Amino acid sequence: MNPVTGIVVYVIIWWTVLFAVLPWGVHVPDKVEAGHAESAPDRPLLLKKAIATTLVAAVIWVGFFLLQRSNLITFRPS
């Protein structure tokens, strides 16, 4: 796998994991302020979610990299 492919795969994994992590710990406020959506979270904790996403995506990417390097699964025609 060349570096560009590795980066592209990591970015795809990162965005997929982000959408899985976004709902974690979401609490809707009891009293909604004027001009805010009723479904808007009280504290979205985006920095913590970005850090968690980066760590989880890195672990998944390393697993993908090792699986690809082991030739158990190949993406090249034989």
Elements, N to C (H/E): HH
Q: How can the largest sheet be summarized? A: none
Task: Give the low-pLDDT segments.
Answer: none
Spatial extent as radius of gyration: 18 Å
Number of strands: 0
Q: Choose one word for the global shape.
A: rod-shaped
The structural class is: mainly alpha
**What's the total helix number?**
2
Number of domain modules = 1
Query: Percent helix among the residues?
Result: 55-70%
CA distance, first residue to last residue? 17 Å
Query: How large a portion of the residues is in β-strands, by DSSP E?
Result: under 5%
Mean pLDDT: 91
Offer a quick outline of the entry:
It contains two helices and no strands.
Task: Describe the structure in your own words.
This protein is mainly alpha-helical and 78 residues long. It has one domain. It is built from two helices and no strands. The chain has helices at 3-21, 46-69. Helix 1 packs across helix 2. The longest helix is centred in the C-terminal third of the chain and has 24 residues, at 46-69. The chain is rod-shaped and about 60 Å long. The chain starts with a helix and ends in a 9-residue tail after the last helix. The model has no long low-confidence stretch (mean pLDDT 91).
Question: Can you lay out the helices and strands and say which pair or pack?
Answer:
Layout: H1 3-21, H2 46-69
Helix pairs in contact: 1-2
